[in-house]
Amino acid sequence: MESKVLKLTPVLFERIWGGRRLGQLKGMPNALSLGESWEVSVHPEGVSQVRGQALSSVIDGRHLPYLVKFIDTESNLSVQVHPDNEFAQEHEGTSGKTECWIILEAGHGAGIYLGVKDGVTRQRFHRALLEREDISLLLNYYPVGVGDFFLVPAGMLHAIGAKVFLLEIQQSSGITYRAWDWNRFDQNGHPRKLHQDKAMQVINFDKEFNGQSAISYQRNVFGEKWIKRLVEHPDFSVDSHTLVQGEELSLESNETSGRYSSILCLSGQVTIQGGACNECLATFESSLLIRGRSHPPFRIKPLSSTATIVVVY
Length: 313
Known about the structure:
Blueprint: E1 4-7, E2 11-19, H1 21-25, E3 34-40, E4 42-43, E5 46-47, E6 49-50, E7 53-54, H2 55-58, E8 66-73, E9 79-81, H3 85-91, E10 99-106, E11 111-116, H4 122-130, E12 139-143, E13 149-152, E14 158-160, E15 164-171, E16 177-180, H5 196-202, H6 212-215, E17 227-233, E18 236-244, E19 249-251, E20 261-267, E21 270-274, E22 277-281, E23 286-290, E24 298-302, E25 306-312
Antiparallel strand pairs: 1-23, 2-3, 3-8, 4-5, 6-7, 8-15, 9-16, 10-13, 10-15, 11-12, 11-14, 17-18, 18-25, 19-24, 20-23, 20-25, 21-22, 21-24
């Protein structure tokens, strides 16, 4: 089998908190509340497409344990938490969910909520839920800018704030426990469903877990001719690369992980060559790399003066 570069078509989702940026990017300018674009996914709730076929029918999904998506927020997401692998397997029959975010655009004053503040105990938080307090006052708040990176481990309470456009790389799991949702109502006028009992079981209130060291907070991960490892997790690793015209990035085989690699173009344009395959990616397009038996390196070249890509593997 020869190496292949599969250009992917995402699955789009409307969300109550979604904005208009994704609609503009994906050729749906009249869409008012597109919240997510699942770029690289074999998760049954949303499978990426390859030339009209489901990606899950083209590859072995066991080797794609991660999911990559764009998220665009007009308003705040719910305050939520994801379980770790052990809890998720026992209670949901699936993997847990650790995720990471790269901020691509941010409105004035935009930010995210990550972890509980120092001194917030399990008892204090539970009382706040029962008394319908403003839960955001108990969380750490981080103003965000373009190029900021955050790791959000399973067990950490979090919420993406309004006016944020980001790239999320996560374990391929759909398990989310909403602890609080800003007393918001759904499209039918009903309070949104919460999962406070399970949330209380999985939230980690340890002081060290909720500090900056646990979230691997990094500023400005993009830069001239910068190659940067952002995170290594058992189910995914993430690198960012900024390329200048005339340069070439060679991606060698990563045989040890047993996972497919994917590339997302975040600015500019690039061409990806693998064997006899050659694909071009424009800004905010994505591809999956299939390595042939001989494992030749994939070669990525910028077609624009500069280009920024993220490689997930």
